[in-house]
Amino acid sequence: MSARRPTERDRRRRELGQNFLADRRLVEQFVDGLDLHPGELVVDLGAGSGALTRSLLAAGVRVWAVEVDPTWVDRLRSGVGAESADVRVIAADLRTVRMPREPYRVVANPPFALATATLAKLLDRPERGPERADLILQKEVAIKLARQPPASLRTAAWAPWWEFRLGRTIGRNAFRPRPSVDAAVVTVVRRDPSVFPTWLGPRLRELLRPAWTNQQPNA
Questions:
Q1: Quick one: average pLDDT of 203-208?
Q2: Average pLDDT, the chain
Q3: What residue ranges do the domains of the chain occupy?
Q4: What are the residue ranges of helices labelled H in the chain?
Q5: How far is CA 35 from CA 38, 60, 138, in A?
Q6: Hey, what CATH topology would domain 8-215 get?
């Protein structure tokens, strides 16, 4: 018997790195532990099938659901978008979407391959970043982000404004399609007060690079 021919949906999932949370109880437990406050704005980057979006709305927050895949955008708009006035479905790449001007949080399960790009979007410009971000990332990446002292030049450059905390592990079986690795939650909290002024954010990595390269040959 010949193998099933890949569908357009299969191709998009591979190209976009889509691995969606499929364990509803786990999603609810995750959201319940986030200390959300009714009415605050939460951005769901890579909203996909809307599993996180629905649980966030049930918690009483306002949600920006950002998704680039047109199939899922249509489903979000006809689903949660039609059911609640508290959600705004945005068809955009999470790397280029314009973030809110008002204070906001991020709760997201972005594609694993876009972890660095997602963090750069949120953290490189501290004055535009969230108050807090709770992200489900590849476990190895989450552990590295939370390591002290910082394990990479990027995390060292983010450290004056952001604190990283490692959360629970989420096994690969909780996702569809099933990835080849486990995931973990990493929480990023804005430091108050920060170590340096926010205007230094975009420049600090390059300022640190010479000293970091001398001390960390493999950085």
A1: 90
A2: 90
A3: 8-215
A4: 8-16, 24-32, 51-58, 70-78, 80-83, 115-123, 139-146, 153-158, 201-215
A5: 10, 11, 23
A6: Rossmann fold (3.40.50)
